[in-house]
């Protein structure tokens, strides 16, 4: 069995690789790739894979962007720490959907299912994938212009221009205004990414999406990372990873 792991977190990638080798000692790990770009380049070389484990949120964007450029000729298992993508993942008719942290027994179920369906799964999956991608490529609606939030017993509309950044604290996503007011919103950061104008908002990391105008200072950090100071000040340290830093710089220069 030849397997590709698409995962931008080193610990998660190493854990999945070790679990696979424990459960299937004969498995061949073709590569471990952290970005959309590297995955597209790898798949375009037609590596003859059997199974691909896809982390949905990668360093340079959603894994679904891979499918806009190349259709993998293999069964697909989506992995993520967030279950908001579950419906979309199954719409793509994936082999399975694993929620992190991945358990050994749950992974074993996936491998067993793959062995049972490997002769018949790939073709219908690819057909369904192409169909869903075609629908996703239809003209999109306008980006969100305001949010309705709760302020005590009242509902309050917040214009998008008032939003400094969004951040996740535990399982709750908050909206922070330039005036320093904080409100919870009923969206995941992944959902917000598709609602916000990418010219004005950027996903800094797994916890934070910022408005361009909320950037106070940007500092070089160790190992190519960046440390971001926001306004109003964030309650937690905001770090941009080494992999994501080049995209962030491109965005700052208006190239994304």
UniProtKB/TrEMBL annotation:
It comes from the Bacteria. Gene3D superfamilies: 3.40.50.2300, LytTr DNA-binding domain (2.40.50.1020). PROSITE patterns: HTH_LYTTR, RESPONSE_REGULATORY. Keywords: Phosphoprotein. SMART domains: LytTR (SM00850), REC (SM00448). The keyword Phosphoprotein applies. The modification 4-aspartylphosphate is found at residue 55. Residues 147-254 form the HTH LytTR-type domain. InterPro entries: CheY-like_superfamily (IPR011006), LytR-like (IPR046947), LytTR_DNA-bd_dom (IPR007492), Sig_transdc_resp-reg_receiver (IPR001789). Residues 2-115 form the Response regulatory domain. This is LytR/AlgR family response regulator transcription factor. It comes from Pontibacter locisalis.
């Amino acid at each position: 069995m030849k397997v590709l792991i698409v995962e931008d977190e080193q610990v998660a990638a190493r854990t999945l690789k070790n679990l696979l080798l424990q459960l299937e000692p004969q498995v061949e790990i073709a590569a471990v790739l952290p970005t959309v770009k590297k995955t597209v380049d790898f798949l375009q070389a037609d590596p003859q894979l059997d199974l691909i484990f896809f982390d949905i949120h990668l360093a340079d964007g959603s894994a679904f962007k891979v499918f806009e450029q190349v259709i993998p000729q293999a069964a697909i298992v989506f992995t993520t720490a967030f279950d908001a993508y579950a419906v979309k993942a199954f719409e793509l008719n994936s082999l399975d959907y694993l929620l992190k942290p991945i358990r050994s027994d749950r992974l074993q179920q996936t491998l067993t299912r793959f062995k049972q369906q490997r002769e018949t799964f790939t073709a219908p999956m690819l057909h369904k994938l192409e169909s869903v991608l075609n629908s996703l490529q239809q003209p999109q609606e306008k980006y969100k212009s305001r949010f309705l939030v709760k302020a005590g017993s009242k509902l309050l509309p917040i214009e998008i221009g008032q939003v400094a950044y969004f951040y996740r604290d535990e399982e709750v996503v908050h909206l922070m205004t330039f005036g320093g007011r904080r409100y919870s919103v009923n969206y995941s950061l992944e959902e917000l990414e598709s609602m916000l104008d990418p010219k004005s908002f950027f996903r800094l990391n797994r916890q934070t999406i910022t408005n361009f105008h909320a950037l106070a200072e940007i500092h070089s950090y160790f190992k190519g990372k960046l440390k971001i100071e926001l306004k109003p000040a964030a309650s937690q340290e905001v770090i941009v990873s080494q992999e994501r830093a080049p995209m962030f710089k491109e965005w700052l220069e208006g190239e994304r």
